[in-house]
Amino acid sequence: MHIRLDPSNELQLYKQLANQLIELIAIGKLKNGDTLPSVRAMATDLGIHVSTVSKSYHELEEKGLIELKPKAKAVIIGGQKRELEETEVEKVENALKPIMAEAFARGLEKEQMTSLFQRILKQWK
Amino acid sequence: MLIIVGIFIIVGILETMTPHLTRKTNVFGVSIPEPYVKHPILKQWKKRYSQIIAAIASLCLLAQIGLYFSPMQEEELPLISFILLYVMLLLSSGLYMYYHVKTKKVKVQEQWETQIKTVYVTDLSVRQKDETLPPIFFSLPIIMTLALIAFTYMNYDTIPDVFATHWNAAGEADGWTEKSGLSIISMPLILLAIQISFFTMSRGMKSAKIQLSAQAKEASIHRELAQRKYGSWYLAAINFSMTILFVVLHYTTVILHDQTAPYFFPFFIVFNIVTLGGLLALIWKLSKINERFDEVHTNETAVADDRYWKWGIFYCNKNDPSLLVQKKYGIGWTVNLANKWSYIIIVITLLPILLVIFI
Prior knowledge:
The complex is a heterodimer. Chain A is mainly alpha-helical. Chain A is built from five helices and three strands. Chain A has helices at 13-27, 39-46, 50-62, 86-105, 110-123, and strands at 2-5, 66-67, 75-76. Chain A has a two-stranded antiparallel ribbon. In chain A, helix 1 packs across helix 3. Chain A starts with a strand and ends with a helix. Chain B is mostly helical. Chain B contains nine helices and ten strands. In chain B, the strands form five sheets. Chain B has a two-stranded antiparallel sheet. A two-stranded parallel sheet of chain B has the order 3-6. A two-stranded antiparallel sheet of chain B has the order 4-5. Chains A and B meet through strand 1 and helix 2 of A and strand 3 of B. Strand 1 (2-5) of chain A pairs antiparallel with strand 3 of chain B.
């Protein structure tokens, strides 16, 4: 479960960390109930600022993927199969739409997009 | 004599081996970007350093053994041994500084840092696999000392009015102290101070940075975990053997009325075997587990911390909340001088030496 943050990447470090954690949940390497290292330990080991790690953890909390409690480790609550609420589906759709629109505008075929979609989905089983 | 010769051999081995025990990405206290860890010049310098130090150490050892066959006065022996050991350490630090500067220079001249890409890396499971000893191993000796203090006060009446507190090399008491509420527990108090600093160090080791490399990932995880585990075992072993030594010293002096020498010396030898033998075992373990960079195929490297180090020896980083960091050169730990607790640790570590000198 390697984490690798690239400071030369245009994405901010906290965003990269959050994305990689989300992906680990999606793949199933981080399961429901697993704990994340403490903010301090994570920041020390990576060699980045504590506030950067804290920011990513809070983002994951907002997305409902982890649970943060004071004086305790962050617990993964995402990843399990459950009935999604209507608003959550809508959120995903809203986030996905501009990306797909951009791809379409750039000239990607619909078939290409579908196969791309399936290829990514396959990684997460 | 055996102990002194043992110290010479072990210090010699340690000084000779040190460049090879350090992480591959740290050469003479300078961070080496991962794509350059196999640079032939570094290998050559490390080898030459070891050869020179091994030669110096052997000479000092021979001189030390020669001393025992010389018609030297017995009082002068410890001083000359001390000077020899000091010269050995001085020469190896001098040689270290020489190569430290050289390594730094070649890194700048060949522009290693401009041709690499720095990344931040870690592994989520590495903290769970960490086997640094839990705090109980370091709080237990503290409880033992507190019990000893209580036991001493319970036997206050049987303690003589004057008891020995200093001995010469032959084990005869040559310094005495008057009995008082404080003087009878001065020995356990020193012990307590050392144990508390050990406890703090063990906590510091646990929260210290686990430095992984960007390319030899698995190997660096393996190395870090082993170093932390065996490092804390060694610390605990010293702590326990020192506690026993102090307890025996205190008990035989204060409770048993000056019967120190016959009990103390066997334990003193055990203590030396544990500290020196343990160090040897640690060196042997660490030399086996050092990471190997078999697969260097990108220009990526884990972030370096050179700017927080002075001469590769002193670490001062305000952004790092940890108290301890792994040494940049050599095995073991050093304090983060930006953390105010580090000064307390330094004072407590020096306390026994200061007390021995001034009391």
